[in-house]
Amino acid sequence: QVQLVESGGGLVQAGGSLRLSCVASGSLFSINVMGWYRQAPGKQRELVASVTSGGSTNYLDSVKGRFTISRDNAEKVVYLQMNSLSPEDTAVYFCNADVKTAVWAPMRNYWGKGTLVTVSS
User: Fold this and answer.
1) DSSP-based three-state secondary structure for 13
2) CA dist list (Å): 73 to 51, 65, 67, 70, 88
């Protein structure tokens, strides 16, 4: 089994910063892409940022220049540094990862349970 556990969410004022962390544990033969998604009330879940095992990154246009994704492959952790937060960033943020649990196993996608980020104006 694979578990993804997020932390670091909370309440912050507009213009502030937060750093989200997601730790992967369990049967982790290899992890390919790790990413952060978010879902605001009444909206669809959207990809915020992703990073491959080689370090290539991808960002949602609205967070470019404000958010930075990074990962520690040895520690199986992915981070999301969020700066210049605005009320529009308010959402539940979910960690996501593509994981092989064994050499013979297919790549499967896993989700964390999410952490709430609330940005007040």
Assistant:
1) strand
2) 11, 23, 20, 10, 31
